[in-house]
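Researcher: Let's do a round of design. I'm pasting the structure tokens now; please hold your answer until I've finished.
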């Protein structure tokens, strides 16, 4: 064991270390000490390792957004509940903190009072709404913008930038945010091939979380701001008004205490009114 070879007799204990050095113990005390050491080492080799504990995350299915409901009525593919789990298990602790209440207040005024599982569900719904406004919930959506302010060359592909996937992201985001997009692999595939790394829902959604984390946590910007990555989160734009419409089915626990129907209705109206004010550019937002 451990490369140590020992011989024990009535008169002495002779141990040879891995280095070749020999240790001889002739006294009773030394013999007992060496023998105890051997038994201790034997115990170390046979003791089973403690099992590693993994944190279990409670995942809930988010309600469908209005566009998801409409597509389901028409029998078209809509939002996959598995995407909720992808989002909820990838959220950083900072986005689940009660301190995030100010940022999400226009859409989820009870965020601070909610449990962690419900906060995760709120974010799953949020990204579903964002995807609805950005890509119509279609994971293979691919758009090349022609507006001068966004018609730039992608630093990774060396081509004119394209917005792709559920959250309309670009290959440049792999460098800017550490997203799991592989252009070298994807450039060999057809434009809308679902096997492309940028179009795979898990990669696309996890990248969106990283982008929003940069906005909310690192830069301390509000959720709705003209500095947002997405035009759908920039107040006063047509894209933002479309996003607001998709946020009308937020989880009930976001609105008010479920037992208080009257209050629930008032808060629901408040959410709609607040969001409409932001869309019109009449409400200042911030995270002071």
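Researcher: That's everything. Go ahead.
Model: Designed sequence:
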């Amino acid at each position: 064991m451990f490369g140590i070879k020992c011989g024990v007799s009535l008169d002495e204990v002779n141990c040879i270390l891995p280095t070749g050095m020999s240790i001889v113990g002739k006294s009773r005390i030394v013999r007992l000490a060496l023998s105890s050491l051997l038994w201790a080492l034997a115990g170390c080799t046979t003791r089973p390792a403690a099992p590693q504990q993994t944190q279990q995350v409670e995942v809930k299915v988010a309600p469908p957004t209005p566009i998801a409901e409409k597509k389901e009525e028409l029998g078209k593919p809509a939002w996959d509940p598995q995407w909720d789990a992808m989002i909820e298990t990838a959220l950083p602790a900072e986005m689940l903190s009660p301190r995030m209440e100010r940022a999400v207040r226009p859409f989820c005024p009870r965020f601070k009072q909610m449990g962690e599982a419900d906060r995760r569900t709120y974010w799953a719904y949020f990204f579903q709404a964002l995807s609805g406004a950005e890509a119509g919930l279609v994971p293979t959506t691919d758009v090349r913008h022609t507006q001068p302010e966004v018609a730039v060359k992608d630093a990774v592909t060396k081509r004119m930038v394209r917005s792709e996937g559920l959250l309309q992201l670009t290959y440049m985001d792999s460098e800017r945010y550490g997203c799991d997009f592989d252009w070298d692999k994807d450039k060999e595939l057809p434009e809308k091939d679902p096997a492309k790394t940028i179009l795979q829902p898990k990669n696309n959604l996890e990248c969106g979380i990283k982008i929003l984390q940069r906005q909310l946590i690192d830069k301390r910007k509000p959720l709705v701001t003209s500095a947002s990555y997405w035009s759908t989160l920039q107040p006063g734009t047509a894209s933002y008004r479309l996003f607001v419409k998709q946020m009308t089915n937020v989880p009930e626990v976001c609105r008010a205490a479920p037992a208080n129907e009257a209050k629930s209705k008032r808060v629901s109206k408040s959410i709609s009114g607040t969001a409409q004010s932001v869309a019109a550019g009449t409400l200042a937002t911030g995270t002071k």
